[in-house]
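Hey, I was hoping to borrow your eyes for a little while. A protein chain has come my way and I'm curious about its shape. Take your time with it, there's no hurry, and the full record follows here:
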Amino acid sequence: MRVVVHRAALKGLLGHTAEVAKASKRESLGWLIGFTANGTVYVNPSPEVLREYDRLRNEHRAFNRELDSLRTLPALTRDGTRVMLGANIGLLGDLGVAHRHGADQVGLYRTEIAFLSHRDFLTEAEQVLLYERVVQEARGLSVTIRTLDLGADKYPPYLHVPQEANPFLGWRGIRVMLDRPELFLEQLRAILRASARKNVGVMFPMISSIKEVRRAKQLLEDAKAQLKARTIAYDDNIRVGVMVEVPAAAVIAEDLAREVSFLSIGTNDLIQYLLAVDRGNDIVSPLYQEFHPAVVRFLRRIIERGKENKVWVGMCGEMAGDPLATILLLGLGLDEFSVVPHVLPEIKKIIRSVKYRDAKKIAKQVLEMQTEDEIKKHLSSLMKEKLPDVLTGD
């Protein structure tokens, strides 16, 4: 019997499957039994399947040892192009994993995680302690702190939000904070106070207009003035960026780039808004396609417009952590991949295994393709040829 499961559920499990399978068979549990990288689960496996998983386990351990050897090496292509690898974190414990896997920086610190676990909004003093701890635990790495991204599926009970028919299109992200400037100022002051070491950036989520960016920047200047009046230290030149996760932001990417220091692409929301697909809806979720030609062409536009205006462009959405997308994103010119920490070595291995000029040629080929299937088949073929030991989920 075989069952197909999502690739994300398999990451990190392959090294244990043979032992699980043997224990299950030995104890006649009759349940799970083996995973493959393409999402297949074997129930009550034969001895041949068990032997195959012994082999896969050994290969996977060897692969992990090779990845570990890359920890201190830069994400440098074979022809000398350097990109940055960031870690997406929400908890302090994530920083240990980020260091262990060789992160260059913290590309996204989700501040809402702490707020969701409390009974009320954190005070400015509580936030300062938290953000300073994050900066301290980052051990000199630059840290990009995203302002509160509440809303949609992340409403704390104390926010008292009215029922919304379409919460993902409703009161969320920067919209909440601009409507609650007193709370926004508290958070901005706390972030600024944590920036005194000059390795902190601030990023605004769910931006859809220049008006929102300018209002948020004005509140940041107000927060600076308030701290200055209290003679509290902060970084007056703190980096300011925005997330590009709404199609409107992608269309005006060049205007946004003139207002900020960096752009960070949030593919999770960008894709579902661009394709009009609720990725949490099982009926239509198969239509959520990160390799849809419209998505790839949108990404090209964002990256090109950012570079034309001399700001770096990163990505902190799930697509940045998909090994199948790495060469494509590299070829499109992405400056930074910010991913969940345990994926960092895999992405680094791919980047160090290719030439940037080849990645650009591949991206150009992909941009001419018309279907997601065609794009995935092309990228999968390249991965199997160049990096057969990297799990691509085919």
The longest strand covers residues 84-89. The domain at 74-386 is CATH 3.20.20.60 (TIM Barrel). The longest helix spans residues 47-68. The chain has two domains: 2-66, 74-386.
